[in-house]
């Protein structure tokens, strides 16, 4: 069981469309911890920790988003951050 922690920045029309809640629902379903937080420039930051296969699923999902979202770019870096014990949408 290999664990990964990632930090992703999602750009496009991703605020005010339920994007953070969409990510939280899927992350919890896959047992991930972390957060999805709106950024001042209109992007969403996602930090997630969990099984490598679940993280890979999440990265694919970040490109999809909920129906009202229009994702233009997703940049992902490995992170050394400590994710919280649950998944939040602060």
Word description of this protein:
The active site is at residues 20, 38. Its EC number is 3.6.1.7. It catalyses: an acyl phosphate + H2O = a carboxylate + phosphate + H(+). With 90 residues, the chain is an alpha+beta fold. The protein has one domain (3-83): Alpha-Beta Plaits (2-Layer Sandwich), CATH 3.30.70. 27% of the residues lie in helices and 40% in strands. It has two helices and five strands. The chain has helices at 19-29, 52-64; strands at residues 3-13, 33-38, 44-51, 70-78, 87-88. A five-stranded mixed sheet has the order 4-1-3-2-5, with helices on one face. A hairpin with a 5-residue loop joins β2 and β3 (44-51). The longest helix has 13 residues, at 52-64. The relative contact order is 0.35. The model has no long low-confidence stretch (mean pLDDT 94).
Query: What is the percent of helical residues?
Result: 25-40%
User: What is the CATH architecture term?
Assistant: 2-Layer Sandwich
Q: Mind describing the biggest β-sheet? A: 5 strands, mixed
For the record, give the distance between the C-alpha atoms at the N and C termini, rounded to a whole number: 28 Å
List the uncertain runs.
Answer: none
Number of domains: 1
Gyration radius (Cα, Å) is: 12 Å
Mean pLDDT: 94
CATH class: Alpha Beta
What is the strand arrangement across the widest sheet?
A: 4-1-3-2-5
Class by SSE composition:
alpha+beta
Order of helices and strands: EHEEHEE
Q: What is the overall silhouette?
A: globular
- SS summary, helix count: 2
Number of strands: 5
* Fold-level CATH name: Alpha-Beta Plaits
Proportion of residues in β-strands: 35-45%
